[in-house]
Amino acid sequence: MNLRQGMSSALAGLLGLAFVAGAGALMLLSGEEATTGLSVASTKDSGRRALFLVLQELGFEPSIWNQAPVALPVGEHTLWLSTPPLMGGPDEGEEESEEDQPATGDSSESAERDLADPRHPWNYGLFVRGGGTLVVPARQKMLNWLRGSADLDVPLWHGLSRAGQLNELTLDTDETLRVTGSLVAVEEQGTAADWHDLAWDGQGAGFAAWCEIGEGRVVLLAGDGFLSNAHLGDDQNALFAVRLLESIHRGGELLFDEYALGLWQPPSSVGLLAAPGLREVTLQVLLFVLCLLLFSSWSREFSRDPEALSMNPRLRAKAGARLYERAGRYDLLARELRLGVLRRMAGRWRMTRSLRQLNEDASAEDIGSVAHALALRSGETEETAARWARLFSATNEGRQTDFETLVEQLGDLETNLQTTR
User: What is the pLDDT of residues 148-202, one digit of tens each?
Assistant: First the structure.
């Protein structure tokens, strides 16, 4: 392999490695989480990154959920939802005018299409009824969304209805913790019998409670500001969050919903290829492409290339002629030239017996006799045939000038023979 071929192979190999590295980087980037607002990937004051890391350290194995709600797992899993999904249906309480309302048939078809949408909030209701636990702040907008778009029969909230600051909270385990954070105002007055209290303040007003819906639960918090990065380290906020989670988590996965924050995108082609079910297949395809690049760049014989010197008689003869010329052996070079010209002429006249005589061991007399017979076969006179015999059987070309003269004579002879034939 020469230098140019070696450099080409190395360049192709580097390009293949760059392709694989680029694909791997895209796979990693496709799994990178965005950071904004209430996201558990956000390090801003309002983010939940600190809570996520604390739960990881304590062995809860939290996960980020950024897929469409139709893919939510079924079973006793816990989903922490900070806000209603941005891609949900129309807000509760918004009514269409009679002019805007479609016909009954069209409305039914539209409803069926909406329910078939993998992003439809109704899938959150299926998650709860299938055994999941949904943890949400008790904001009025969230409660309207639960009862409307999510289709969950959540009873009226009986907990804290005032805005303000937290102080001390008592858990259902009779443990009292000092918690600092803001409350949300909820304009509802429900019945305590519909709820199972998890935590309440010094006046007995509920702060956290759950209700049972189907096989699952909905947990309401009168405030979730104590979970932010800015406040989780205040007082006993982190301990309260852990104790609360221990009370509501029934095993399964612990998921923090990033889809609801608008951090979801349809899976890209690279994201699909990097999915756990296809990752091994993708790596095998990349390995195959890399091997194909290396194989195609490797220098080797093709059917369209000249044969190797050891296999091609013409190239071998040329190489031998150069050796004779550099060594000054014009007598041997003249013999090879005579044999070559005579074989070509004998083949043209289909003199197979004469061709068999013109082997590497043929003597000068044998070569001369074949030349004599060939001349007679081509219609030449006896005198011309004798001159051919002398020309082909001579062995006195020891100098370059003699060899060049022989080349001219044999060239003229072949030209005349082709013209007469």
Answer: 988 898 998 877 766 667 778 889 888 999 888 777 767 677 777 888 989 888 7
pLDDT tens sequence across 392-417 = 888 776 788 887 888 888 887 877 77
Question: Smallest Cα–Cα separation from 199: which of 226, 221, 229, 231?
Answer: 221
Mark whether 325 and 220 lie in a shared domain: no
Is 338 found in the same domain as 219?
A: no
Residue type, 396: N
- DSSP code for 204: S
pLDDT for 112 equals 54
Answer yes or no: is 287 within a domain: no
State how many domains the chain has: 2
Q: Give the full edge-to-edge strand order of the sheet including 62-65.
A: 62-65, 254-257, 78-80, 133-137, 216-221, 206-213, 196-200, 168-171, 176-178
User: What six digits make up the tokens of 73?
Assistant: 């797992």
H/E element holding 125? helix 122-129
Query: Is 80 in the same domain as 202?
Result: yes
Strand partners, 171: 199
Judge if 40 and 150 occupy the same domain: yes
Domain region containing 153: 34-91+116-262
Confidence (pTM) = 0.53
